[in-house]
């Protein structure tokens, strides 16, 4: 073939697949902004689903606990910055592994954004997270940063150990602690809400690892889910979630809590009974139990603070 045809070929992508599809669809006469792909890549690399979910959950918990509008904005901004830093840190650390595994769904591996840019974004988000966290008070800020630090530890190496569940437990448990210490009289959280949130985090860790289990194993990751295997994950995931439901149901007993526990137990039992014939059923029922836990956690937000401080939460809500 003549060398004159070479300039017309698209440059090879690092993964061996030229990314020309989007270029072909661009209307004639238009030009793609060189900054567009990195911005899109950064947005995708922050793990937008979990980032939005955790931010919304904690902001809702703050509102239920009695934080005013300003306080809820501060809580949401701090948690958003922390979650952005954790998501970007994860993709920056895993960049080489994702490329080797050919994970085209990962922005860095797909070439949408460079690993260095993602790492810089993670560090900047972490820096922003510090003053936003301490805007709710010293105890609240410290509690939140402990959780963010645990998540960074997971990204930087704990993910590959048998203790991979610990950062999830600390991170989720830190969220109601952050909210409670940010209330007007800094009351601190009730133990059962913190424990329930930590258990919810353990269940989330197991469920979150299942889709990428094979790729992680091939890359040498040996966290707790990878040691358990798919069947072990499906069997174990409902247990911490059901324990969280029980704590939330009986921490402040009422009819809603009893109904939630009954529903969660029914879902878990259905997953166990049907899992042998349909392997995806236990995962689906675990997600449903987790959704019940999240709803119950927000409902219990008025009881997030230790005894003697609930009236403060109610009064601050009335003033909001």
From TrEMBL:
<keyword id="KW-0472">Membrane</keyword>
<feature type="transmembrane region" description="Helical">
    <location>
        <begin position="190"/>
        <end position="211"/>
    </location>
</feature>
<feature type="transmembrane region" description="Helical">
    <location>
        <begin position="257"/>
        <end position="275"/>
    </location>
</feature>
<feature type="region of interest" description="Disordered">
    <location>
        <begin position="1"/>
        <end position="35"/>
    </location>
</feature>
<dbReference type="GO" id="GO:0016765">
    <property type="term" value="F:transferase activity, transferring alkyl or aryl (other than methyl) groups"/>
</dbReference>
<feature type="transmembrane region" description="Helical">
    <location>
        <begin position="281"/>
        <end position="298"/>
    </location>
</feature>
<keyword id="KW-1133">Transmembrane helix</keyword>
<dbReference type="GO" id="GO:0016020">
    <property type="term" value="C:membrane"/>
</dbReference>
<keyword id="KW-0812">Transmembrane</keyword>
<feature type="transmembrane region" description="Helical">
    <location>
        <begin position="231"/>
        <end position="250"/>
    </location>
</feature>
<dbReference type="InterPro" id="IPR000537">
    <property type="entry name" value="UbiA_prenyltransferase"/>
</dbReference>
<protein>
    <submittedName>
        <fullName>Membrane protein</fullName>
    </submittedName>
</protein>
<feature type="transmembrane region" description="Helical">
    <location>
        <begin position="125"/>
        <end position="153"/>
    </location>
</feature>
<feature type="transmembrane region" description="Helical">
    <location>
        <begin position="165"/>
        <end position="183"/>
    </location>
</feature>
<dbReference type="Pfam" id="PF01040">
    <property type="entry name" value="UbiA"/>
</dbReference>
